Structure formats: structure tokens, C-alpha cells
Amino acid sequence: MLIALTKRVVRLSPILIAGAACVLMSGCAQTYTTHFNRTEFPLSENGLWSNEGLDWTQIATSNGLAYGTEIGTNRGIYEFDDSYAHLSGFPPNQEAWGRVHIAKPDPRCNQEVEILLRWTSTPHNTTGYECFARCMVGKNSYLQIARWDGPLGKYTYISKNSGPEFGLKDGDILKARIVGNVITVWVNGVQKAQAKDDTFKTGNPGIGEFLHGGPGRGVGSNRDFGFTSFTARALN
Q1: Closest to 112 (Cα-Cα) out of 216, 231, 222
Q2: Is the Cα dihedral 220, 222, 223, 227 positive or negative?
Q3: Which residues neighbour 190 within 8 Å (Cβ) at sequence distance 6 or greater?
Q4: Which pairing describes strands 173-179 and 29-34: parallel, antiparallel, or unpaired?
Q5: Backbone angles phi and psi of 80, in degrees to 5
């Protein structure tokens, strides 16, 4: 396990925790990997992760799982108070991936896991690209790319795909990359979506989760789905 050695990644130089997270620097290859071994609320890992949005919910970790804390029953714009956390100090070209845990796929509600790219958060304002998929495999599965445009509930779809080939099952790897204005998403190494958008030029990788159930549908538990590992890498 190596600690970052150059000034370029000072913002990402933690006191490393064995088995929990590492930051590597080799030339221009900046990489962060974690298995969420701490019990934390919110997710921090010595201050590496943040969510400053205030209007959105936090990611928590326990027993090697990063999971959301959204109640799942809000309505209106508050329905979209996804749980998220992001890193800092990454260049604009970046990729990230995570292993998905889905204990109880629930077609009654929307359970989503998200890889975030060029993400930023300040009080009442969150921007970036959300690459996400539903945590079930079936005719109502989907994988989409959305642009978050700032205030709570303000977003724009830039790629929408649906059908059983776009759902996630336990153990799948969800990966997303942005280079220039091109965003690409894979599941288990198979490309599932690609889109172009020129809105955001900077920001950082991260993770997010969404839980929502309609009237009378139920929402299950946040701990039924999430990420068991995550890696972010700079692309130059």
C-alpha cells in the first residue's frame, strides 16, 4: 500500500487504513480504491468523501457495504434527495466502478445504484453526471445517464435504456467513464450506454443510491442494496 508522493494529490493524501482504502500515484495515474471496511455515517474515510449539498441524503457504511439513507417515501422534488458521496482532487477525465450488492431485488420500488462523474456539491447545489441502473433484472429494468443541473429535483436525462439486459444483479460491476464530452457506461465489461454532453468540465467521481416507492408499493430497506467496493481512476 503506497501513500501519494507528489504535490498534485495533496487533497487526496489520507492516513491510510489497512484493508479499507488506498491512494496510488504513478506518474499521472491517480487511483483510489476502497472496500468500505469502516462503520461510518456519513461515509468519510478520513475526510476523503464529502456531500455538501444539504438537500440530499448521505451514504453510510457498515459490514463492508456502502448504502443510502434516503427514506424512499418523499414526494415532489424531495423524491430526488438521493444519497451520495464524492471524492476530490481528480482531473476532468476520469473513470470509476463498483461491485454491486443486491440482497433483495424488489420490483415494488425503485432501487438504484449510481456511479458519479465530474460531481460537485455545495449547499443546495449539486452538479455532475449520474450513471445508474435499477437493482433488478426484468422487463422493467433500466440503465440511464442523467445530468444533475444544480437545485434539488433539477436534472436532465441524456441517455435512457430499458429492458432486462439493462438491469443489475448481485455481484455485477457497474463502471462509467468520461473523457472530454463522452460518457460511457459498462456492466461487467459490456458497454451498455454512451452519450455526449458539454455542460460540466470539472468535478470528481463518487457513488450514489436512490430508493423510492410509490403509494402502497413499499420501499424495502436501504441495506438491501449498495456497493461493496469502489475504485476511481484519473485518465490523462
Answers
A1: 222
A2: positive
A3: none
A4: unpaired
A5: -100, 30
Question: How many Cα atoms are found within 13 Å in the side-chain-facing hemisphere of 50?
Answer: 17
Domain ranges of the chain: 7-234
Question: Which residue is listed with cell 458519479?
Answer: 116
d(CA 54, CA 63): 26
Q: In whole numbers, what is the pLDDT of the chain averaged over residues? A: 90
Instruction: Count other Cβ atoms within 10 Å, centred on residue 184.
Output: 18
- Name the nearest CA neighbour of 145 among 133, 135, 155, 131: 131
The list of the chain residues with pLDDT below 70 reads: 1-29, 214-215
Q: Cα(37)–Cα(19) distance, rounded to whole angstroms?
A: 7
Q: What is the pLDDT of residue 236?
A: 83
Q: What is the pLDDT of residue 214?
A: 67
Domain 7-234 adopts which CATH fold?
Jelly Rolls (2.60.120)
